[in-house]
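Table 4 source record.
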Amino acid sequence: MDEETQDVEIMPTDIVFDCPHCGHNLVVDYRAAGLQVPCPSCGAIIQAPIPEGMHLEDLDSDPGELLSQLLQTRRMLVKAEAVAQQMGEKVAEMTQQIADYRKTLLAVKARVETLQEAADLANATRQDVLDIIASAGGGK
């Protein structure tokens, strides 16, 4: 068994077999008997074996159990859709916040550029004044 399969708790009803393509050890629930499943290691689609003495009819559920499973699946779908709706709203809210932050950042950037231009102008003026003072003082 490989490391992944060693971490899996194998139930007495599980089917344990090797991928015929890569040899990866697989464990599936007995209800997967006869179904095609992807190998998690190589991705090949393989058929889960049907254990000796088991018949696929043994896996058929009664209509009441199927209806119960269908109703449970629908309830889970409704909950998942509600969560997806909430997440969509949260994404829209966060997208708006990002747009607002971007506007603020651009405004700050423009202000910094204006201040830099003012500082550059002040430094140039200062240098002009120093040059004038130096030339006036040097002429004496």
